[in-house]
Amino acid sequence: MKKYLQIALMLFCVLVVSSCSKNEDALEVDEAWKIENDEAFQAQIFAPGFQQLKSQSNEGFILYKVIKEGEGKEPIYYTSTVKAYYKGSLIDGTVFESHTFEEGAPSKFEVSGVVDGWTTALQHMHVGDKWEIWIPQQLGYGASGKKAQAAGQITILPYTTLIFELEVAEIVKQ
Questions:
Q1: d(CA 86, CA 157)
Q2: Higher pLDDT, 87 or 20
Q3: Residue 8 located in a structural domain
Q4: Residue 67: inside a domain, yes or no?
Q5: Its catalytic activity (predicted)?
Q6: Residue 115 to residue 137: CA distance in whole angstroms
C-alpha cells in the first residue's frame, strides 16, 4: 500500500511541475500594451463621425465610420458568405493584413467565421459600403492574440485593438 502511495505522490508532483512550466506557444504581452490599446479605443469614441454598434455576443461594441455608402440594399446575415476588400492595421498604423482593390480580387469568407467585431459590422453593411472599423480586443483576438500563419505575416499580440477599412464587394451566398 505504501508503494502505491509513493507512486501516486510522484505522479502528482510530476503533474504539478508540468502544469507550472511555461507554455512556449503562448503569446505574452506586458500590461502597458493592453492599456495603450484600450486607451486608443476609448479615445476613438470621441472622434468625429464614429458611431457605436453593440456586438452580437453582447461582449461590447465596435466603433465605425461610414467612408462610402454603397448602392446595395440586400441584408447580410450571420450565415452569409461575402467577398470584401479590407486592410487591417494596429493602433500604430502597422498593416497586418491586406486585400485591397489595388492588390486584386476581394477575399471570400463566411460572416460567421470571422472575429466578432467583423461579424457585427458586416450584418449592418450592404454591398458597396466602405467603413472604418475599430474593434476592441475582446471582439478581436482577445487575450490569446493570433500568431503569424505564414512568412511575411504579423503576429497580433494579445489585447490588441484592431482597425479595419472594410468594403463589401459581393454577397456570394445568403
A1: 20
A2: 87
A3: no
A4: yes
A5: [protein]-peptidylproline (omega=180) = [protein]-peptidylproline (omega=0)
A6: 10
**Can you give the residue range of the structural domain that contains 141?**
30-173
Instruction: Indicate the residue type of 20.
Output: C
Count up the domains in the chain and report the number: 1
Residue 141 corresponds to which cell in the numbers above? Answer: 483576438
Q: Report the CATH number at residue 44.
A: 3.10.50.40
Distances (CA, A) of 119 to 39, 61, 80, 132, 134: 23, 12, 10, 14, 13
Q: Which three cell numbers stand for residue 144?
A: 490569446
Contact 39, 136 (CB under 8 A): no
- The span from the CA of 172 to the CA of 58, in Å, is 27
- For residue range 138-155, what is the model confidence (pLDDT) as tens digits? 999 999 999 988 877 889
Whether residue 136 lies inside any domain: the answer is yes
Q: Indicate the pTM of the whole model.
A: 0.81
With beta carbons less than 8 A apart as the criterion, state whether 134 and 50 touch: yes
**Residues with Cβ within 8 Å of residue 164, at least 6 apart in sequence:** 86, 87, 88, 89, 118, 131, 132, 133, 135
Asked if the structure places residue 1 within a domain, the reply is: no
Helices (H) and strands (E) in the chain, counts: 3, 7
Contact call for residues 37 and 159 (beta carbons, < 8 A): yes
- Is the confidence at residue 58, as pLDDT, over 90? no
